[in-house]
């Protein structure tokens, strides 16, 4: 009795607050004729620096071009933004557009009620997507429909400490292209300089799994799950992790505090650092006066093509109201336009979703000529491989278990393949059944 | 008893110097790092080779740090005041009377200390939003207007208050509120001071609730302000340490000025 | 006067008065503000949480709660890391006790013989960590303890020792977090002990001295027993809140790693309960934490009543 009352209290209050949550998504309005305000949840706004400045600039430009739309920006750190969006939905506040990381893609689509853009925007989506990289729309796709429009994202690149390369007798202009070469170079750096050879940003508490997924999918294309069946312990996938373990055993892979890898690289104690290109700006200013920074594409397994996987985020539409949907769509279109990517790429350092602009005088051509280092990052764009998100209510646990197992396989003493297999069996029941 | 008092005193000094150094060294490190240019951030030299105020300049430039500090002072002061007042009143009720339900009330207050804040966070967020407290300093204060800790400590302090004095006040015809204000509180300055200090520090260091509730940087408090210099795209250590130094400065200054009183109030408060 | 009077005090409960109706109401007036805040902001949500812990629901209006009985609880208790987390929680508590109780007790007794500005200076300095923002404390310690660019390891090296992977080595990381947590507490506990110590009636010590007791005997037989309420209080707080105190540092520094070596019950609940978007998991986690630590509190309080020596 009592129980039911409490629950109905909880349910009814949130229902009341949210208004009637209609799931029927009518076609959005044709145009905006009256002033309208939409909320924009964004994590670049939650930290000081270029990301925030560029985002504010984008919003200002958008408002200028769309005088009837006012954007209310709400900043939250990237690991908190999903909780914030959800809390606000529970509290009955209007969430219109949100920038969410790719790991939450399926959750956003299935549970939070992100709008499928094909249904809302119809042909406009396909028209807008012309000029995207080939995998462009696929980055935000769930079951054949686009829920997230890829926004600020990057891929793993290899940061090189050129000074350490020279000290180890290696040629910094010929950085390792394959994992075999990483092993050789890493060992040389560790032995000759006493510093660390190689480290991927794949194990730390805030690292996510995109570096790990990139490495795995570069070994023949196998993913960490196939539908709702976990496959991260399958042969190719496990071999990739075993390769890292082999690097570790050989001394080429650093054994450091996994939460402080950026510090280790910035302080000049690490030769090769595989991590998101989004930190390029930070690494450059840290290296200034300390060591010479180099950049290389991510290493490959022999002749197999690499599968650079996107870190970063997509923008999602949650508006219910047709007019707000139109305003939200206009904002999303603007954020992924040629003009916006010129700002995003040149100022923040993310990849352009529209590669055409790098050779266009009006946009990035001039900038790229001044920043040739960035080419290593651009080269990977045409092989961009979507990050695999997990579905179901336990998706975060599953992802954590996979990451923990991978870390243990590399850092621990057990057989890496066995460790992965055990974790896969343990995590499978947490996946959705169908 | 083989050691002389002098030797023992010397040993005591030695131990204390060691412990004091351990206590303040990290604080020193924070401050000196805030004066380092970016290229020196990871140097292990004890003092920056080329000290600079650049980090401070940039903190002030990118963030309304003084407004944020002011918000934090307001928030912490209001929270402290509320917790002390509600604490004094509740403690007085529990000490002054023995009444049906008193034990239950006492246990309810004590048990609330054990409720993990994450459990009540979302319901509180919903409620705060309905009350229009979203993105306001009041929203940071109201849910924390009473603290089990304050009630319990003040309860213990009041229990130690001599009964005869209270009785005498009652004989003089003083009501319970007058007795509390005119007799009990003036004699509880030390415990009230210690409780206030601890409440202030804990309010100052509050993190998760403001993170959820505050939306605009102008309405923010320092703990969230610090977060502003950390992101997945790399942390700006020099700026962070400058901001952290600025954030600790007010509380450190208050502490330095009041140091003797703080220590003494703890000595006298008999929190135990 | 009140401070030394603790010894002779007693509850000031007065006998019930004739005007019972009005009187019976009076204490509740005083309790009302505190109780109102706690009921509205803690207990109502707690009851809702209790209810929700039997459902699977993400709290969103667009989805329906589904009754799952005790499933949420069973899932949590069966987490593969739970056993490790329970062991670690005990380790954290045991490791914190020397820092939150042992060292401060010794320091308080030692400084009691010091006089003048030196004593105040020491007591002032060791209080400083208490006012450092936890996130900053975490970052600075991570820095100082880093194997490559940290000062601590540089000193170890220059003295010819091997470096220590304070946050890297699974055998060491937990103790590093214990140290950082304890570092913030030493000063606070010391002040409490010093306060309690200065409240000891000097005539006891004088009398013992007259009887020819050594200062060690005085410490052992008089001062420590008389400090036992403070010892027990701080031990109780360490047991009840140690896991929560260390949580901040686990969250900021290790995320439970390396190789799950620093996770504890509270962090596990956070990671699998509160951080997941499921209201069922998180409320079940919260109820478990509340229940377990509530029980521990009751046991400890009962023990305290038995063990404490009061000066009366």
Automatic annotation (TrEMBL), chain A:
SUPFAM superfamilies: Periplasmic binding protein-like II (SSF53850). It is found in: Periplasm. The keyword Signal applies. Residues 1-26 form the signal peptide. It comes from the Bacteria. GO terms for cellular component: periplasmic space. This is ABC transporter substrate-binding protein. It comes from Tianweitania sediminis.
From TrEMBL, chain B:
GO terms for cellular component: plasma membrane. Residues 69-258 form the ABC transmembrane type-1 domain. The keyword rRNA-binding does not apply. It is found in: Cell membrane. Keywords: Cell membrane, Membrane, Transmembrane, Transmembrane helix, Transport. The keyword Membrane applies. Belongs to the binding-protein-dependent transport system permease family. This is Carbohydrate ABC transporter permease.
From TrEMBL, chain C:
PANTHER family: ABC TRANSPORTER PERMEASE PROTEIN, INNER MEMBRANE ABC TRANSPORTER PERMEASE PROTEIN YCJO. This is Sugar ABC transporter permease. Belongs to the binding-protein-dependent transport system permease family. GO terms for biological process: transmembrane transport. The chain crosses the membrane at residues 28-47, 90-112, 124-144, 172-195, 230-250, 279-304. Residues 86-300 form the ABC transmembrane type-1 domain. Gene3D superfamilies: MetI-like. It is found in: Cell membrane. GO terms for cellular component: plasma membrane. Its main location: membrane. Keywords: Cell membrane, Membrane, Transmembrane, Transmembrane helix, Transport. It is a multi-pass membrane protein. PROSITE patterns: ABC_TM1.
